[in-house]
């Protein structure tokens, strides 16, 4: 009887163990944080009229996340404002 109870508790104990959940890789999380910070700084610089700095920062954002349509959109607007319509068109097509 004691043997059966010990086995029962063992089975319950082992079945209650869970598999460790996967957490995002630290590098990916840091990349997201860096991208968000850089994008925010670029927006701030754009609003303050520092268009060249904002353009460079949005370009860096696009290098970090090549599928970032928000960065491409901002680059298209900045290019259009500088009357560089060809660049603006290329960035707009990307969006």
Instruction: Bin the helical content.
Output: over 70%
Task: Tell me the number of helical segments per DSSP (H or I, 4 or more residues long).
Answer: 5
Q: Overall pLDDT, averaged?
A: 86
Would you identify the CATH H-level superfamily?
Tetratricopeptide repeat domain
Strand content: under 5%
**Silhouette:** rod-shaped
**How many domains in all?**
1
Between the first and last Cα atoms, what is the distance in angstroms? 71 Å
**SSE arrangement, N to C:** HHHHH
Largest sheet: none
Identify low-pLDDT runs: none
Structural class: mainly alpha
Return the CATH topology.
Serine Threonine Protein Phosphatase 5, Tetratricopeptide repeat
Q: Report the radius of gyration as a whole number of Å.
A: 26 Å
How many beta-strand segments?
Answer: 0
Name of the CATH class: Mainly Alpha
CATH architecture, by name, is Alpha Horseshoe
Mind explaining what this structure looks like?
The protein has a single domain (about 25-95), classed as Alpha Horseshoe (Serine Threonine Protein Phosphatase 5, Tetratricopeptide repeat). Helix content is about 80%, strand content about 0%. The longest helix is centred in the middle third of the chain and has 22 residues, at about 25-45. Helix 2 runs antiparallel to helix 3 (about 50-65), helix 3 (about 50-65) packs antiparallel against helix 4 (about 70-80) and helix 4 (about 70-80) runs antiparallel to helix 5. The mean pLDDT is about 85. The chain has five helices and no strands.
